[in-house]
Design goal:
The chain is α/β, with parallel strands linked by helices. It contains 13 helices and 15 strands. Its cofactor is pyridoxal 5'-phosphate.
Amino acid sequence: MEKKYVKLQTEIPGPKSKEILERRNQFVPKGISNNCHSFVKKAQGALVEDVDGNIFIDFAGAIGTINVGHSHPRVVRALQEQASQFIHTGFNVMMYESYINLAERLANLAPGDFDKKVAFFNSGAEAVENAVKIARKYTKRQGIISFTRGFHGRTLMTMTMTSKVKPYKFGFGPFAPEVYKAPYPYVYRRPEGMSEQQYSDMIIEQFEQFLLAEVAPETIAAVVMEPVQGEGGFVVPDNYFVKKVKEICVQYGILFVADEIQTGFARTGKYFAIDHFGVVPDLITISKSMGAGVPISGVIGRTDIMEAADVGEIGGTYSGSPLGCRAALAVLDIIESENLNDRAEKIGARSIEKMKQLAERFECIGDVRGLGAMCAMEIVKDQLTKAPDKEGVGKIVKSAGERGLLLLNAGLYGNVIRLLMPLIISDEQLEEGLQILEEAFEAVYQKDSAVPARTGRM
């Protein structure tokens, strides 16, 4: 297949990137990780150009932040227009209409046939923190339940709620009290000989036992669930599990919170991934692709719940900034006008098809899964034992990067390759990226380390 878009003029990273990398290592702490050691100069759509003139296809999407693509013209125009008028006043000092416009649109888009209100913040972790605050204030309870393999952020509360110890929690304790981890289904790793229905029944039984053995449900303010686990490895639960958890929440007066930080804004083929499961949350947390790269997040919820917090109890200096609100409004326009929910379904179908073809060639691929354009492959050392192959995934990601494809891993074991390409990616760019992904597998598992030169355009 002729490569039209990827262009490699130097090794990766190139000389200019290496020079900047030395300065990065001198002045920036190692605790901030970097997937790619090149430095960006320009990004447009699904293509990223580094300072050495190398052009990459982006299958990482800034960890699911660029659903509408890099520097979408409508987002750029909105930001330029806003910056020319005013950059910041602080919504709690002097309000601006874009905040109201965005809140109104999101309240109308969110699931639930009831009145809703929306509060804006800066990051996904802040959204989750504030959902916890609001839930506790409303229910007058303290307990919070999250799930095994869940990821909710790096602040004290959200780090506590996050399941993966390394690199997110190790050595950072003590953690916030009254946070509990419940089981979450992982169909690929269910006990041998157990059907999917039997497994679902078992997980629900474990959840019910959890509420007897670990914590009384009357003390729980909220259950916080990712409709599809992101950092946890793109693990998709079945409808039965999600609905049963919601039923249990209703039974005990527990709020159901859908963490849509990574799954929202058309990634799974719907505005909110929870819509796939026929469940209406009490609160929804949103961020990432909401702002197309501009920091903004939010909590959408039932009016009576959102009104539990009194004046001044939520918010912040930059929460719901004018730039973030204008970017988010442009994102909603783009999703609607460019039919990105439909596009996500098509991208996901083609990606799954390609990954299944790869699974027929490479025994290291133990599972292929996804919802919409949130797709992943789990890499194992052995099909029978399902032993995770974290090292192999690292080699694949590195090899793909050397060939001009930005790629990310995920999973509790670090052995999952996840795809988060912008939803505006063209069919040709998608095919080229999938071809490079195949070449990376060939390089790692067929011992072919040659990196062919490419020419292309941006």
